[in-house]
Amino acid sequence: MSVVVAIGNDFLASLEVTSHLKELGAKKVVSRAARDLQEKFLLRNGADVVVYPEKLVGNLTAVQCSSENVLDYIQGRVKNFCRFEISFYQRIGLESPLEKLMFEKV
Predict the structure, then answer these.
(1) 62 alpha carbon, distance to own chain's centre
(2) Is-contact 48 31, C-beta < 8 A?
(3) CA atoms within 13 A on the CB side of 23
(4) At CB < 8 A and 24+ separation, what contacts does 81-85 make?
(5) Taking the CA atoms of the chain, what radius of gyration do you get in angstroms?
């Protein structure tokens, strides 16, 4: 059983729940952290994966704001690996996929 622990700003509660879930036999525990020090404690107390939702959303927002053609952005677990979804239609001067279909039929 996989479990996600995302209790908000109460780090002590997240730490306790993470530890208890591992003791109860959870196979995979994904916990939320706000800082690197919290990640260290969560990993020591049973978390298998630690996520930083605020950091991820901040990075996504920064990438989207830096380019008008970026629609989505996914950063992989591998260092220096990212996947971008860009708007190809705007790149070639079309506004939407519908205009692309009309363009191809002409």
Answers:
(1) 14
(2) no
(3) 7
(4) none
(5) 20
